[in-house]
Amino acid sequence: MTDNLFAPTPEQWRRLAAARQAYTDTVSPHYDETLQHVTQRARDSGDIGKADIGALLMWKRLRADTPWAAELMALKFPL
Q1: What's the DSSP call for residue 32?
Q2: What's the pTM?
Q3: How far is Cα 62 from Cα 60, in angstroms, rounded to an integer?
Q4: I need a labelling partner for 8 at 20 to 30 A (CA). Which of 41, 51, 71, 74 fits?
Q5: Which run of H or E residues covers position 59?
Q6: CA–CA distance, 44 with 39 (Å, rounded to integer)
Q7: CA triplet 43, 48, 50: central angle to 5 degrees?
Q8: Domain locations in the chain?
């Protein structure tokens, strides 16, 4: 049996975990909501549509440090 050449090493896992923690410590808790919603919809339906792709593009391009984007991401729906 051969080792999986693509499996992360323990050190790589440690670095990934540290990077994830640093990310979550510095980003708004609302920042990844769009990604999570689109991911769940795609997982449930087995398909991703143009609206989902558009939502991801907008999400990725938003600068969360601008006041209007921070307010938008903090909104709870339905209003």
Answers
A1: T
A2: 0.56
A3: 6
A4: 41
A5: helix 50-61
A6: 9
A7: 155
A8: 31-79
Asked if residue 28 lies in contact with residue 64, where contact means CB atoms within 8 angstroms, the answer is yes
Averaged pLDDT for residues 46-60: 89
**Residue the block writes with tokens 């540290």:** 18
Q: In one letter, which amino acid is 9?
A: T
User: Model confidence over 31-40: pLDDT tens digits?
Assistant: 888 889 999 9
In order of 27, 50, 53, 54, the CA distances from 64 in angstroms are 8, 23, 19, 17
| Ramachandran sector of residue 78 (left: φ over 0; alpha: ψ -120 to 50; beta: rest) | beta
Tokens of 61: 């391009």
The answer to whether residues 56 and 35 touch, using CB atoms and an 8 Å cutoff, is yes
Q: Note if the bond before 78 is cis, omega within 30 degrees.
A: yes
Token pair recorded at residue 41 = 């919809």
